[in-house]
Amino acid sequence: MSEDNNELKLVFEEPKQRKKVPKHLADYSPEERRTLATELGLPAFRANQIANHYFTHFSNDPTTWTDIPVALHDTIREKFLPQLMSLVRSVTCDNGMTRKDLWKLHDGVLVESVLMRYSDRTTVCISSQAGCGMNCPFCATGQAGLTRNLSAGEITEQIVAAARACAEGELPGGPTRLSNIVFMGMGEPLANYTAVIRTLKNVTEPNPEGLGISARSITVSTVGLVNGIEKLTEEGMSVTLAVSLHTPDDELRDSLVPINSRWNVKEVLAAADAYEKRTGRRYSIEYALIRDINDQSWRADLLGRLLKNRNAHVNLIPLNPTPGSKWTASRREDEAEFVRILESYGVPVTVRDTRGREIDGACGQLAAAELSK
Ligand code: SAH
Q: Which keywords annotate this record (predicted)?
């Protein structure tokens, strides 16, 4: 394990000289929040009140609260609720049912989140890192490398902002509840493990200590960092695990998902199986269909054989071509054939809808467009 950590550090460690992200309520456990309150000379229950405003009512403005003395507002804002991000712009499509928000963090770094309302649920897709160190050649985020990890506060803020937008009826159809969270925006969540786990706790803890969203409604998507999957298994949280496989063979996966040279297909699936065994949760296999690269029927066949006795579901994603990429989405008939072959093995498969295409919905594209302006 320590050897793995050293190796990962080379890939993931952030530059040392960065401005520190201000500490936020969402960076602390409920216990630490109470300790901090006490250290500030406040009764511990103030921490619970603040958490209640934040997690139950999505409010981060003490001036609107009536249960806390005005004299404490500045301290609370500074120590518990500093502003971590500001909205640069929002773009919408699908008649407003999909909205992508571009956020600027305190050090000028840009990240994105996408809110999607469906008939039966509302999902936010969030970023766990600014940029990404995984370098997958078809992904917009991967192209610029990793800028830095986001803090738990910064990840949680994207979720709370989405919950607030839902509650305030900002999407057509009136007020609703944020029901699902997917870690499929920028970054590799398991490479920012501690902050992601704190965020998962913030989301799943019942009110007032968290948002009270069930772990089953959360999907953590990973390139397949086996040591991270193993740690997540030990947490015993029943979040849905999604593994970005993209091809069943190591030869191609070494180039599509370069970390495959560290943990190959067999090792990644074994870790996902162990996760499934521990949590009882079926996992997802993410597979971006790229024309003439990974969409051949023999690959579907190989994938079917790999998965037929596993408790996994395949999510096919038509490739969303990144600017300047020579790759594009599969032909419709090849996609249909891919689905047919997987189904012939009894493997559950869905083709992901392509919400948000026209607003650069794919991972990292909006931030990349903003940076190139
Ligand atoms: N780092 C994590 C989560 C981020 S991306 C991971 O790799 O799983 C979420 C999903 O979108 C991943 O499956 C990723 O491979 C996929 N993806 C990235 N760029 C894409 C593109 N241009 N078209 C289709 N899917 C893409």
A: 4Fe-4S, Cytoplasm, Iron, Iron-sulfur, Metal-binding, Methyltransferase, rRNA processing, S-adenosyl-L-methionine, Transferase
